[in-house]
C-alpha cells in the first residue's frame, strides 16, 4: 500500500497535537537497564535523592517515545526517507512513571531539495508534553519526504 | 560506594576511545518495533529498497547504544547529574546488524557552574564508529558533573 502522506502535505505554520502514551514504571526501568543504567533511572531511593526528585525516565527513552508517537501519527504512513540529524534538543522536565505523554508538532518550514527533485526537507519543532501540560522535551529536526509527483523511494537520508 | 570520576577529572582537549558493542539483527528489529517502526528498520526487502541499502538500526537506537557505551566507560562511575540537552547530532551512516560500535570521546571544554558551586559543565564531542572506521554518528552535548570538593548530589539537570 502506497504511503498516504507526502512532502506536499506539510505546510509551514501548521500545528497539530496528538498522542497519549502512558509511561509505565517497568518500561522506564527496562529501558534504563539496557541503555542508560544511571541510579536515578533505576531506583526510587536514588531518584528521590537526585535533582529529578524521583525515579525518572532516561532522556533517550523520552526521545524514543516521541519517535513512536510521531510514527503512529504520521511517519509510518508517509514517504519518510529518514532524517540527517537533530538541530536542537532540550530535556526540560523529568518524565515519571504514570505520566501520559502527547505531542505538539509545528512545521517550521518545508522546501524542495535543491539537488534531488524527488524529495523535500521538512523542519519540525516537536514538544513532548505531560498530562499536566508541562513541556518535558523540545526538539527541532529536519526529515526528508518523498514528493508525490516524483514517486520517491523510501529510505533514510544517510547518503 | 562513592563515584570515582568527578568534574575535576575532565580536561579540555582529552581524547579517549573505548567500547565494542556488537549490534544484533534481533536487537535492531526489537528496538524499531517498539519505538521506530519504519519499514527500513524492520524488513530486509524494505531496507534494500531504501537509501540505507539494507535493514538498518533506528537512529535513536544508535543514540541509545552510544549512551550505553558512555555509561559503561565512565558515566555510571561518575558524579553525573545528567544533561540538559543536545547541541548537535548528525546521523552520518547507517548502522547494520553485525556492526561492532566503539566511541571516540573528545572533551571540548569544562567549566565550573557560575551559579552553583557544587557542579561543573563538561561539553563533549562523541563519535560512534563502526568496525571499518566509519563515523556513523556525531553528537555534541553538555553533561553536568558534581565537583569532588563540594560533595555534590547525583541527579539530572532538569532544575
Distance between the termini of chain A: 25 Å
CATH fourth-tier homologous superfamily of chain A: Hotdog Thioesterase
The biggest beta sheet of chain A is recorded as:
6 strands, antiparallel
Q: What portion of the residues of chain A fall into strands of 2 or more residues?
A: 25-35%
Radius of gyration of chain A: 17 Å
Which protein chains make the most extensive interface, counting residues with beta carbons within 8 Å of the other chain's beta carbons? A-B, 46 and 47 residues
Run of helices and strands of chain A: EHHHEEEEEE
Helix content of chain A: 10-25%
Uncertain residue segments of chain A: 151-159
CATH architecture of chain A: Roll
Total DSSP E strands of chain A: 7
* Shape, per Cα inertia axes of chain A: elongated
**Total helical segments of chain A:** 3
* Overall mean confidence score, pLDDT of chain A: 93
Assembly state (oligomeric): homodimer
CATH class of chain A reads Alpha Beta
CATH topology of chain A: Thiol Ester Dehydrase, Chain A
Given helix and strand content, the structural type of chain A is: alpha+beta
Number of structural domains of chain A: 1
Pfam family, one (chains A, B): MaoC_dehydratas
Protein name (chains A, B): MaoC family dehydratase
Organism (chains A, B): Phreatobacter stygius
Please explain how this structure is put together.
Chain A has one domain (7-146): Roll (Thiol Ester Dehydrase, Chain A), CATH 3.10.129. Residues 151-159 of chain A have low confidence and may be disordered. Chain A is elongated. Chain A has 3 helices and 7 strands. In chain A, strands 1, 2, 4, 5, 6 and 7 form a 6-stranded antiparallel sheet that branches. The first copy, chain A, is of the alpha+beta class and 159 residues long. The interface between A and B is large, with 46 and 47 residues. Strand 4 (88-91) of chain A pairs antiparallel with strand 3 (85-86) of chain B, so a sheet runs across the interface.
